[in-house]
Design a protein that fits this description.
MmpB-like; membrane; rod-shaped; transmembrane; mainly alpha
Length: 46
């Protein structure tokens, strides 16, 4: 029953620009997290 409901729903995918922005923000977040870990590591070495 749930399958039929999902299949009959119109696609509500966000537009391409929005999806691209989400991917970019996700990458930026990963980059920021890595930079924070690196910064803590460098501070810990001093």
């Amino acid at each position: 029953m749930l399958d039929a409901m999902l299949w009959s729903d119109p696609e509500n995918e966000p537009p391409k620009e929005l999806r691209d922005m989400q991917v970019m923000l996700r990458r930026l977040g990963v980059l920021m997290a890595a930079a924070m870990v690196l910064a803590m590591f460098v501070i810990g070495l001093k």
